[in-house]
Design brief:
Oligomer: single chain
Distance between the termini: 21 Å
Helix content: 40-55%
Bound molecules: 2'-deoxycytidine-5'-monophosphate
CATH class: Alpha Beta
Structural class: alpha/beta
CATH superfamily: P-loop containing nucleotide triphosphate hydrolases
Strand content: 5-15%
Number of helices: 9
Order of helices and strands: EHEHHEEEHHEHEHHEH
Largest sheet: 5 strands, parallel
Number of strands: 8
CATH topology: Rossmann fold
Radius of gyration: 17 Å
CATH architecture: 3-Layer(aba) Sandwich
């Protein structure tokens, strides 16, 4: 039996991946997996239990008991509690990135992520969707943008939500996080083989969505 189709979108943070993946999923009527939210939620659960972010086995052991629900507009509920804001705070960024370097954590999240692959199809966004989690995906994309542009986008996003943010701090944190994501020994951030790379620095969200949809339409029609 053939598996439902998967489209993967990987790349560093603030490349517009989340918004683009959500728009592509909506246009195709596919399910959506925001894999970063799983790392963020697990990091939050670990913090709530006062675990140290180096305790890989103990953190991984939390995963099977977490019930997660996704709603419209990026809303996330953990065990029926709305954690949408808590998992987007800058401390949550750092913790998610730290636990994401732990092999036990990445392993524990594999079945959880693959469970999102359902009919009629899935758009999965993250860092290793095309390279590891859905290596057999039909279409793989890798989005990039300069660190300065990504920091500006994140700044605008946080200020828009009424949260306090300083551009130089965001740029510094973003570079540190990129480095951790790129240099970790397990599933480092890099394009999957065969992934189509799109530099979003000078493009609007709609332009990127149109490009992605153009590739997919050619594939589906062909
Ligand atoms: O996409 P995001 O910013 O919400 O991801 C949060 C952190 O989780 C990020 O630092 C890298 C990590 N992550 C990962 O290692 N693999 C994924 N597939 C998704 C996220």
């Amino acid at each position: 039996m053939s598996k439902p189709p998967v489209i993967t979108l990987d790349g560093p943070s603030a490349t517009g991946k989340g918004t683009i993946a959500s728009a592509v999923a909506q246009r195709l009527g596919y399910h959506l997996l925001d894999s970063g939210a799983l790392y963020r939620v697990l990091a939050l659960a670990a913090r709530e239990r006062n675990l140290d972010p180096r305790q890989g086995a103990a953190i991984a052991a939390l995963a099977p008991d977490l019930t997660l629900e996704f709603g419209a507009g990026g809303q996330v509920w953990l065990n029926s509690k709305n954690v949408s804001t808590a998992i987007r705070m800058s401390k949550a960024d750092e913790w998610a990135s730290r636990i994401a370097a732990l092999p036990e954590v990445r392993e524990a999240l594999l079945p959880w992520q693959r469970d999102f692959r359902r009919e009629p199809g899935l758009v999965a966004e993250g860092r290793d969707m095309g390279a590891v989690v859905f290596a057999d995906a039909e279409w793989k994309f890798f989005l990039t943008a300069s660190a300065e542009i990504r920091a500006k986008r994140r700044h605008k996003q946080l200020i828009g939500k009424g949260l306090d943010a300083r551009l130089p701090d965001l740029l510094r944190d973003l570079r540190a996080r990129d480095l951790r994501d790129e240099q970790r020994s397990i599933s480092p951030l890099r394009p999957a083989s065969g992934a189509i790379e799109i530099d979003t620095s000078e493009l609007s969200i709609d332009q990127v969505v149109d490009q992605v949809m153009g590739f997919i339409a050619a594939w589906r029609g062909g």
